[in-house]
Amino acid sequence: MERIEFVLGSSRLLFLFLGSVYLGAILIVINCPLPIMLKIAGTTLFFWYFWQLMNLHVKRLSKKSVVYIWQDSAGHWGCLTHNKKAAIGMLKSDSFKSAVVLILRFRFKTGTRNVIVPVDALNKLEYRQLCARLSL
Hints:
Elements: E1 4-7, H1 12-31, H2 36-58, E2 66-71, E3 77-81, E4 86-91, E5 96-97, E6 101-108, E7 111-118, H3 124-135
Antiparallel strand pairs: 1-2, 2-3, 3-4, 4-6, 5-6, 6-7
């Protein structure tokens, strides 16, 4: 098995999905019979967490964001984060694969790392190659 590499890009699909989920959550908080300070605090918390997820999984600008993954010829997987920290480990069996999104769960010496790969974060050929590699 040869080494295969993937450079992860940003995703409009994940942005639209997370944006609609958080917009719905904010609308629920605003329409709940709560004191105004709790509504403001809840809305602020949702905006902050949405911003964190955008930087981590959608735009991949956070220093902990995985921007590059590879599998070597021995079957070990590796990840490179935005701040150039690399880790090599194994892909866990509870990773999720579908036609729209991959949720890759890696086990490293330091712990586990989840990487969300929407279909538009890679080009079509690379996404199919990654899906095929996960089937092996």
